[in-house]
Specification:
This protein has two helices and no strands. The chain is mainly alpha-helical.
Length: 86
């Protein structure tokens, strides 16, 4: 009976230690999740996400067309430079 009481007390102490460690880890995880959320928000702000700078429709189509023309011009320029170097 005495051995069972000691085992129960030991188990109780272990449970309390584990519960304390669990609580500390949950607090650490919550803090890390807050930091992750903050960093994700900062990254979205840096990358311009959430800005309505080109809605679907004619504005976006014009932007895509312009970017394509710029890319084509850069390609033509690179070809001309390459020919001049030959």
């Amino acid at each position: 009976a005495e051995a069972a009481t000691r085992a129960a007390e030991k188990t109780e102490r272990q449970h309390m230690e584990l519960a304390k460690a669990h609580q500390q880890l949950r607090a650490e995880v919550a803090q890390q999740e807050e930091e992750l959320h903050r960093l994700a928000e900062e990254a979205r702000a840096r990358n311009g996400c959430g800005r309505d700078w080109a809605r679907d429709g004619p504005e976006k189509d014009a932007l895509v067309e312009t970017k394509l023309k710029i890319a084509e011009a850069h390609d033509s320029l690179a070809q001309m430079k390459q020919q001049l170097n030959l």
